[in-house]
Amino acid sequence: xxxxxxxxxxxxxxxxxxxxxxxxxxxxxxxxxxxxxxxxxxxxxxxxxxxxxxxxxxxxxxxxxxxxxxxxxxxxxxxxxxxxxxxxxxxxxxxxxxxxxxxxxxxxxxxxxxxxxxxxxxxxxxxxxxxxxxxxxxxxxxxxxxxxxxxxxxxxxxxxxxxxxxxxxxxxxxxxxxxxxxxxxxxxxxxxxxxxxxxxxxxxxxxxxxxxxxxxxxxxxxxxxxxxxxxxxxxxxxxxxxxxxxxxxxxxxxxxxxxxxxxxxxxxxxxxxxxxxxxxxxxxxxxxxxxxxxxxxxxxxxxxxxxxxxxxxxxxxxxxxxxxxxxxxxxxxxxxxxxxxxxxxxx
Amino acid sequence: xxxxxxxxxxxxxxxxxxxxxxxxxxxxxxxxxxxxxxxxxxxxxxxxxxxxxxxxxxxxxxxxxxxxxxxxxxxxxxxxxxxxxxxxxxxxxxxxxxxxxxxxxxxxxxxxxxxxxxxxxxxxxxxxxxxxxxxxxxxxxxxxxxxxxxxxxxxxxxxxxxxxxxxxxxxxxxxxxxxxxxxxxxxxxxxxxxxxxxxxxxxxxxxxxxxxxxxxxxxxxxxxxxxxxxxxxxxxxxxxxxxxxxxxxxxxxxxxxxxxxxxxxxxxxxxxxxxxxxxxxxxxxxxxxxxxxxxxxxxxxxxxxxxxxxxxx
Lengths: 347, 313
Prior knowledge:
The complex is a heterodimer of chains A (347) and B (313).
Chain A: E1 4-13, E2 16-26, E3 31-35, H1 42-50, E4 57-62, E5 65-66, E6 77-80, H2 92-103, H3 109-122, H4 138-150, E7 156-160, H5 168-185, E8 188-193, H6 196-202, E9 205-210, E10 213-218, H7 220-225, H8 230-235, E11 242-245, E12 250-254, E13 260-261, E14 271-283, E15 287-295, E16 301-309, E17 321-327, E18 332-335
Parallel strand pairs in A: 3-8, 3-9, 6-7, 7-8
Antiparallel strand pairs in A: 1-2, 1-4, 4-5, 9-10, 11-12, 12-18, 13-17, 14-15, 14-17, 15-16
Chain B: H1 2-10, H2 12-42, H3 59-66, H4 68-99, H5 107-125, H6 128-138, H7 145-152, H8 174-202, H9 206-214, H10 219-247, H11 251-256, H12 268-278, H13 282-290, H14 292-310
Helix pairs in contact in B: 2-13, 3-13, 4-8, 4-10, 5-8, 8-10, 10-14, 12-13
């Protein structure tokens, strides 16, 4: 277990700047999630930590060591790829044991077999050791990849969207397992994903990236509650935050779950009233999504979504003016030009 | 009329026959018939002057087997093929590694790689008879450029390591002649084997190679434990090609040495040609060439089965 420090990391591919200057401090034993849309540089950032890419600028420290120029095998890291990258011609045991052999850290065969078994046990696949990867299900393959990653007891575990090849049901289960398992080992973990649910559910902290730059770092709830800019506000949450231009300089934002019928607002709380027409209702079982339009300060209509939990049973008539509101404390204000969050006082 | 036509065009049985017919005809006329003719000749007394059929059983085979020249040809054919294939596959692996290596992101690097790949394929693209004539000149007893270069490097000529003669006489000495034949086969087969291996290597997912790197594997471990096992099926296919081409090849030996000196570079196809066509004894020539058939069949079956077993996914 070691902390990881990134200072001013820049990685270019020809003209393209995939990572455009990232500073990041990952605490020892922390589960850090790097979240962003595809092409935001999150995978490149992880590959740079792994040593598969050499940054043009910046330094990387793992623990007390500067590893910037070291090859992957000298960094004390392990990585799980999105495809799991299992060696198809080796058995499960061969796959898990490969890093031990390659790193020459465990020359004794008996000891190696024992460590392979222990790693397999950790992810409950000890009964599959003789199988070939092609004989395994997606979930089992993922476990093999994780066992192979932890067998050499790395200081840092890098996970590149390891859950995205699993079906939805298995994913929730795998998430829970992964988190429990990381806590047990206390291993410093960097997890890359574009899935905000994974990010919110797994991360001790989340790093939101866009265009090679860090947009915001913080605990999941903190980022959700106080997004630093319009990108983070709309990227996190499903659906994302509603935005409304209130002047030439300022956009006002509120989350769909905070736009409620006036009767449902907490009594006594100051609120901002919204009169709107709901044009469509989506029933999702646990929630209802209401779609409609709210005018901005110029009178242009902007698509707005409200999310009502199913215990709010108020009837919502379609194409009729309804009175909704958002509690004042749930309003966010952003600079229209830069997209940055405005200090509460300015609002 | 049109209705019948369009029904035929939609009928996969009719169209299947139509599409298969040219290939079938080709195989029957140019492979099947000669093969059957050879089978018939080999159990007869046919000569160029008298092609009438007199059945003599396996006498031709027995006679051929006892000929010393045939034994030489048999041994040479196997030796040339096996040695050439081993060298080819090693060279092809090295070349394929080089030619699939990641390039620096420069235009000149891409152009350079393109030229290198072009040059590589040339020996394969040149008609064999022409390129072997080229090699005949290279190995010329008096004007060989190879000898010239060796002389200039002071390795050949009076008072040198390989002297005192001014020429090595490549095709006139048993060992050098054998080496020359093998060399030309290697030169000829390496491009194809390289291209096949390049296809195999570039089909290995990059994730897998990155994973090997992260796992701590270095160059040779990645080569022997990850890359080679994964390209094994396709490598066996390339071996099969090489084996069949080399084993059954007449051109190289015919142009370079005609089997000489004496029988030191004689191969089965060459001997078959000498006996059957030059010597006019069709029956025995056919018998010689038919010794090739079971060998190639066996090699093909063994390699194809190994390849399909080694196939992964």
